[in-house]
Structure formats: C-alpha cells, structure tokens
Specification:
The protein has 346 residues and is α/β, with parallel strands linked by helices. The chain has helices at 5-27, 50-57, 60-67, 83-91, 102-112, 160-173, 190-199, 213-218, 229-233, 246-251, 253-272, 274-284, 291-298, 312-321, and strands at 38-43, 74-79, 98-101, 119-124, 131-134, 150-153, 185-187, 204-208, 224-228, 240-245. The protein folds into 2 domains: 38-127 and 237-340, 3-Layer(aba) Sandwich (D-Maltodextrin-Binding Protein, domain 2); 131-233, D-Maltodextrin-Binding Protein, domain 2.
Length: 346
C-alpha cells in the first residue's frame, strides 16, 4: 500500500495525540479510593455504653455516613468483656472502633505511639464513678483487706478499675505501694463478678465495677461501699472512651467525621430524653433491672454522658510514673485525636 504525504501527516498527528494523552494520564490524579463499607465497633456490658446503644437504636452512624454523601455502611456491633482483647482485635484490624476505660486507651496509645499507625481516643463517652464494694463485714477501708479476700475487676493490672485500686493503695499505704493489693485481684467480667459477690459463696469478697452493677450490688443487704473513684481521683472522671487507629481515621475521613457527629447526636438525645434512654438501655443491654432504678442512675448528677475527657491525666500521669507505660503524656490531647481538642478536657 502506497502512503501519501497527507496520510503520513495524519498518522504522525495520531501518534503525537496518543503520546500527549499518555503524558496527561500519567500526571492526572488517581481515582480516590472508596471509604470503608463496613464499620466494626466494640461494645461492653454496662450503663457506660448507653451512647453506643443509642447510636445503634437510631442507626445514627448510618444516617451521618449517608449525610456525608457515602453509601449506607454495614455497622457491626461486637461484644467484648475487656480492653486487652479489644486492643488486640483493633491492632489486627478485626475491629475499627474500641470502647472502654481510660486505662486500656492510655496503654494502647503508649504501645503504638512510635509506630506507623498510632492509636488515639476519638472522644470520651461518659464520666462515671467506679465503686469498690464488699460483702465482708470486717472491711471498712482497703487497709482491712487480708489474704482471705479476693477483689473482682475486669482485668488485673490493666483495667481502669485495677489502676484506680493501685492509686488508692498508694494513697493509703504510701508511695511505691501501689501494687499492695494486686495479689488479691481476680479478672472477671462485671456480670460474673456481681453474681459471685452477691452469692457470698465464692472467694470473691469485693468487686470494683461500674454502673449499673455497683448500684445493683448496693441494693442488697450486707453489701457496702468501700471507696469511689471520684474520691480517689479528686472529682468527676471519665470512665469510658472510644479509640481507633490513625490509619482508620486517615483512610476514612468522611466516615470518621460521621462517627463523631453520630456520637454528639447520641449525647444530645440522651440528655434531652432520659426516660426514653432508660428504655434503650433495657432493650440493648438486655437488662432485667427495674426501669425506675435505671432512670435513677441516668438522672444521678455523678453520672454524665459527655464527649469531654475529664481527669484522664490523673490516670495517665500515674501510669507513667509507676512504669505501666513508657511515654509520659504532656496533656490529654496527646492521646486523643484533634477533633476533640477544642473541649475543655483534662
């Protein structure tokens, strides 16, 4: 086939056009990766997780994700009984959002601080007192415990209850004696610890728990209060928070913001609809407690549903001083993400 001068020019232009297209394509931004279609959140038993239950009841996460222009996600609620297992699931990417006490949060922040994927808090979800109760008539203060006593709490040495007991022990027995009662502690989920304490038929003679379990215990004859975490820490203190990996927040910015917005809406709803909130707790907590009893706890001025971290540095500073964590935070903002930094936390 004979090629004319004109056809040659057309062919050359075609080659130039393809080359230009390739150059433009190479310099063009890549397609933005879609955000996660599944969000896995951890729950634990207890009144402290009421904001999670409200988000679940009204599908607030789904609502805010869709509001952000993303497809409706699948939200999975996974039940855990303690912070250690939750943190392992988070690090292995089998969990996206953890929920638990300040102790496990600060522990995982410290463990991951200098890695490529640090873990930090999303927000607090409450301030609540933690009570140490006992069925032993001879125990008036923690100084009265003996080798015959056993204190149930969620996780020996690492749970927020365990850290609270260590702070109390140091205050009672002097600096350096924070482990004085550690040998008496036993790891037990709150429902099991409550059952053991109330039965008076086991080695468990005391329990450091949380609402509603501690209030339920105190309704029974022969159970009395030994101390409150508010007394140990010197005021209202965050009990539970949410936390996640930096990678989840960075890879899913709209989803992360939707989660924070959903949490804020849940807080507003609880504080404006306390009677209905009691019903949500009964439903999702599968609680058999009297509704008025639950409502009395929600109305208790010592119990506050808020995203603002309170007195968390009391725990974090203590844990750093005794060597439970290697890194000493300068502020609560070190272990919470920036979205909550505008709050007057501590």
């Amino acid at each position: 086939m004979i090629r004319t001068r004109g056809s040659f020019r057309l062919a050359w232009r075609g080659v130039l056009g393809l080359a230009a297209a390739a150059i433009l394509a190479a310099g063009a931004p890549t397609t933005i990766r879609a955000e996660t279609s599944t969000i896995r959140l951890a729950e634990q038993p207890g009144l402290g997780y009421l904001p999670m239950m409200v988000m679940r009841e009204f599908e607030l996460i789904e609502k805010h994700v869709e509001k952000a222009g993303l497809p409706r996600p699948k939200v999975e609620w996974l039940l855990f009984s303690g912070g250690a297992a939750m943190n392992e699931a988070l690090l292995s990417r089998n969990l996206d959002i953890a929920s638990g006490g300040v102790g496990p949060l600060v522990t995982i922040w410290d463990r991951t601080k200098n890695t490529s994927d640090p873990v930090k808090g999303v927000a607090a979800i409450n301030s609540m007192p933690l009570f140490l109760t006992t069925n032993n008539p001879n125990v008036k203060t923690i100084r009265d415990f003996t080798e015959k006593d056993r204190i149930a709490l969620p996780a020996v040495r690492v749970s927020i209850q365990a850290v609270t007991l260590q702070i109390a022990a140091e205050k009672e027995f002097g600096e350096g004696n924070h482990t004085r009662l550690d040998n008496l502690t036993v790891s037990m989920p709150h429902p099991d610890g409550t059952a053991a304490l109330l039965s008076k038929q086991t080695e468990i003679t005391a329990h450091l728990s949380s609402p509603p379990f501690q209030y339920q215990q105190l309704q029974n004859e022969g159970i009395k209060l030994v101390l409150s975490s508010y007394d140990v820490l010197g005021g209202k203190t965050t009990f539970n928070s949410l936390w996640t990996r930096s990678s989840f927040r960075e890879e899913n910015p709209k989803t992360y913001k939707a989660l924070v917005d959903a949490l804020n809406e849940a807080m507003e709803w609880i504080n404006a609809n306390k009677e209905e909130a009691a019903d949500v707790f009964i439903k999702h907590g599968k609680s058999k407690l009297d509704r008025d009893f639950i409502l009395s706890m929600i109305n208790d001025p010592d119990i506050e549903f808020t995203t603002v971290p309170r007195n968390t540095m009391g725990y974090a500073s203590f844990m750093a001083r005794i060597g439970s964590i290697k890194n000493t935070p300068e502020s609560w903002k070190d272990y919470y993400f920036e979205e909550i930094h505008g709050a007057e936390g501590s």
